[in-house]
Amino acid sequence: MPQVLKSLEHSGPLVLSYMDRSGKIAVERVATGFGMSKSQLAETAGLARETLYRSERSLGAKTQSRLREMLEIISRVSDWAGGKEQAMAWYRAQPLPAFGGRTPEALVKDGKAAAVRDYLDHMALGGFA
């Protein structure tokens, strides 16, 4: 199975809704969808402000990976949070006890998105925080 399709099979419908035809996260679509500027989106994803204003950088592997991680986490919580906007608020502000009170946003910025996804999987199976 091609790598792009493999990575897409784990993405929720929210992530897929922000992708262009080539499988890249469409930065403008994400910013608009969450009512943010590109600068605010970059800050939320832990990227330099100018990254999302330059197409060659916004399409880079690191940028795309960070945006995908953020959207995957938001997608996982959007149903029980009450929608994507509430899921974004949760992502940015909810302290997670299992991580010393750090927010999902802070963890993703530190490259710990996999740990947040594992935590959410654990919680979905009835685990304790």
Q: Count of helical segments?
A: 9
| Average pLDDT taken over every residue | 88
Name the overall outline: globular
Uncertain stretches of 5 or more adjacent residues: 1-10
The total domain count is 1
Class per helix and strand makeup: mainly alpha
Distance between the termini: 36 Å
Organism: Ensifer oleiphilus
Protein name: DUF2384 domain-containing protein
Domain Antitoxin Xre/MbcA/ParS-like toxin-binding: 80-124
Provide a compact summary of the structure.
The protein is mainly alpha-helical and 129 residues long.
Structure in words:
This protein is mostly helical and 129 residues long. The chain has one domain. It is 61% helix and 0% strand. The protein contains nine helices and no strands. It has helices spanning 3-8, 13-17, 27-33, 38-45, 55-58, 61-81, 84-93, 104-109, 113-124. The longest helix has 21 residues, at 61-81.
Topology record:
Elements: H1 3-8, H2 13-17, H3 27-33, H4 38-45, H5 55-58, H6 61-81, H7 84-93, H8 104-109, H9 113-124
What features would you highlight for this structure?
9 helices, 0% strand, Xre/MbcA/ParS-like_toxin-bd, 129 residues, DUF2384 domain-containing protein, disordered N terminus, mainly alpha, 61% helix
